[in-house]
Amino acid sequence: MQLSNVENGKSVRILYFHGGIWLEDKLRQLGLLPGSSARKLRQAPWGGPIMVEVDGRTIAIGKGIASKIYVEEERRECDSR
Amino acid sequence: MRFALIGQPNCGKSTVFNQVAGYKSETGNFSGTSLAYIESKVRVLSEIVDLVDLPGTYSLSGSNPAEREVLHYLTYHSVDVIINVLDSSQLTAGLSLTLELMTLGKPIIVALNMLDEAARLGMRIDGEQLQDILGVNVLPMIASRGRGIRAVFTTAMMAAREDSPPKRKKYEDKIENAIEKIAGELIGEKTQIESEYLAIKLLEGNALLLERLYEEIAELSPVVESAQKAILESEGQPTVWVLNAEHHKMAAQISNDVVTQGKRRVSRRDSLDNILLDPIWGYISLGVILWVFFQVVYGVGSLIEGPLLELFDNLALELASKIGVGTFFAEAVTGIIQGIAGGVAIVLPYLLPFLLGLGFLEDVGYLPRLAFLVDALMNRLGLHGKAIVPFILGYGCNVPAVMSTRLLESKRDRFLAATLATLVPCAARLSIVFGLVAFYLGPQLALGIYLFNLLVIALTGRLLSSLLPEGTPGLIVEIPVYRLPTWRTVMHKAWFRIREFIVDAWPLLILGSLILAVFDRFDLTSIVNSFVRPVTWVLGLPSAVGVPLIFGIFRKELSLIMLRQALGVYDFSEALTAVQMITFTVFAVFYIPCLATLAALRRELGKRNMFIIALLTVIIALIAALLARAGAMLIY
Fold it and tell me: What is the DSSP letter of B1?
């Protein structure tokens, strides 16, 4: 599944990226790396960017980029927050 | 002795720098505000040290300009101690940079900043335990209130004097073996710590360093390459990313150990986003915020502008009468004073409130949210959300608008955003729209011209982006928590930007006014008019408007002021038909940006692009004015 298709409020685990080095570099620096979990907070209307929380950091990602990030839904075992 | 401040974007580094160095660094709640490093002298424990504020960076191995800058600085300048500033509320993210910094083999101390923010999120951080795990000094700090800064600097001084770099954390065996192998090649030439650090950077594939070291040690190349290959084969990805993941994993482990997660206090600031970023309310509040913003800016501006210009006019008259009215010298002096006045009349009334307001929105943290809200819209123009900033700025003055394109990542985006921003009518061009169209033909038509302007910008954006080969890289931006800005940082930042205007643009305004005086003196108007005649003829305008249009390039508001003089009437409706007024105004809104903007374009994009943009604006202005003329003929 692509990050762009995740529902609001859902937590996902990042699997891999499908983009250039520049993109991967930039995402990794912000803590979005394969294996890390992210929670989708909201999305702007009309195909706008999506907002995710990773490690307590909130990041806005344009739709085009979000569709290059592949994720799987996370099983919610212990939801502390 | 030199101290380096390093931290991730938005961690409060520049705030620390400003607190101790007397406001010389630009801070902002938008990552990448300080692109180049800034140095200042600071007194610590009766010793004078150089304090350098390096650009905020998420890691040292990335490829963006800020990261390269930081790594380059740390590699080639002598730094006695690193002060690593961390945003405590994002401990895991911050620690991964700390772990990377620890490989540099330089003394380092960690300043845990924004502890108040962390407490609000319910995080309790055991500083002593963190200190034990990392093996470096960890100090608490709330920089925005000046708390803990002194202790950080005193400890940093002691660490620098002691000069005992921390032990870096070990990676997985595979990587450690690779490091050891490469370091073994270097060890004769370098110290143990240095070789290890260089080995890590070589493994990551730092091209600059590779080249330099290969020259010194020829047999290094095969060793590095085989090590890189081994890691790529076993891990399935390049070493840079393996190490990045390692840092991240370690950081997560450490923060798991030292943080006790309590209850998160839901503050009003948390729920603010539910309104400000809501699919409906978000846009309504965006409209309200921008409306208030422009009301305040133009309100303050027009309040000050009148008396200010009067003051300069009187000064010019007085000086001219002292020198002798009618002499060339007197006219030149008057011209220069008008140039200075023109600058002051832009800077003080419009630019200053504008930049103060924008700085406030920036420091509060609204700009990244604005980028989030308008990203879809900007995509239609071939840009992404961050490019909204030059557009907003453009309505005040195109000069800072062009400068602000710096925050865009790709060259293509910077060119496109700068081109479109110069089409945005600034405060000076607003005076033409108001003085001509709104005054003689009614405010609805003036609004119509504004909407027409937006349409032209949108069409130009679409057209240009379809001509430019690549697409926009897209929006990736950190959304910081809302923070109440301190007025001192906002003021300072506005000053920082105004200083650029003064240095770049003001001299040109003065020069332009001087040239104008010369033209006036030697009556060169008819030459100018016949030169511009092809354009004025096509647009169906009287040939006398040639001079006002040409001098509009020096200063846009001159187009209107000189129009009166050129046509020899006080009431424009005596000399111009309604259609002509509309055509003239539309052309004046779009054609060639003013000299000051051209200078900014040259600085940001180079001479060639400056000429391309200027040419484009002439073409756009001609087409737009002809369309407007045709449209106006239908109405009248």
Answer: -
Q: Does the pLDDT of residue B23 top 70, yes or no?
A: no
Residue B538 CA neighbour count, 13 Å, CB half? 13
User: Would an 8 Å CB–CB cutoff place A8 in contact with chain B?
Assistant: no
What does each C-alpha distance from B68 to B56, B98, B209 come to in angstroms? 11, 17, 12
Residue pair B279/A44 in contact (Cβ under 8 Å)? The answer is yes
Q: Which helix (H) or strand (E) holds B179?
A: helix B173-186
State pLDDT tens for residues B545-577. Answer: 888 888 888 778 778 777 777 777 777 888 889
Testing the interface with A: which of B372, B373, B413, B465 to mutate, by most A Cβ within 10 A?
A: B372
Instruction: Please list, in sequence order, all residues whose beta carbon lies within 8 angstroms of the beta carbon of residue B496, skipping any fewer than 6 positions away.
Output: B26
Residues near B80 by Cβ (< 8 Å), separated by ≥ 6? B1, B2, B3, B49, B106, B107, B160, B163
pLDDT at B265: 67
Does the beta-carbon distance from B248 to A62 stay under 8 Å? Answer: no
d(CA B610, CA B602): 5
Give the mean model confidence (pLDDT) for residues B433-449.
85
Beta bridge partners of B5: B53, B83
pLDDT at B268: 59
Q: Which residue has the tokens 């250039």?
A: A20
Closest by CA position to B105, among listed B211, B178, B198? B198
pLDDT in tens, B294-328: 788 777 777 877 787 788 888 878 887 887 777 77
**Which chain A residue has the Cα nearest residue B368?**
A60
Query: What is the C-alpha separation between B372 and B429, in angstroms, rounded?
Result: 29
Report CA-CA distances (Å) from B385 to A60, B10, B372, B600: 10, 19, 6, 22
The DSSP secondary-structure symbol of A2 reads B
CB pair distance less than 8 Å for B376 and A48: yes
Residue B87 to residue B10: CA distance in whole angstroms: 8
Q: CB burial class (10 A; 0-12, 13-18, 19+) of residue B593?
A: buried
H/E run at residue A11:
strand A11-17
Helix B578-590, helix B443-467: angle, nearest 10: 40
> For residues B564 and B572, is the Cβ–Cβ distance under 8 A?
yes
CA-to-CA distance for B73 and B71, rounded, in angstroms? 5
Cβ distance A45 to B372 less than 8 Å, yes or no, reads no
Within 10 angstroms of residue B176's Cβ, the number of other Cβ atoms is 12
- What is the per-residue pLDDT across B404-419, written as a single tens digit (0 to 9) for each? 888 787 888 899 999 9
Q: Within 13 A of B358's CA, how many CA atoms are on the CB side?
A: 26
d(CA B554, CA B469): 34
What pTM was computed for the model? Answer: 0.76
Among A27, A29, A61, the residue with its CB nearest the CB of B475 is A61
Residue B596 near residue B505 (C-beta atoms within 8 A): yes
Spell out the residues 6+ positions from residue B629 whose beta carbon is closer than 8 angstroms to its own.
B539, B540, B579, B582, B583
Task: Provide the 3-class DSSP secondary structure of residue B83.
Answer: strand
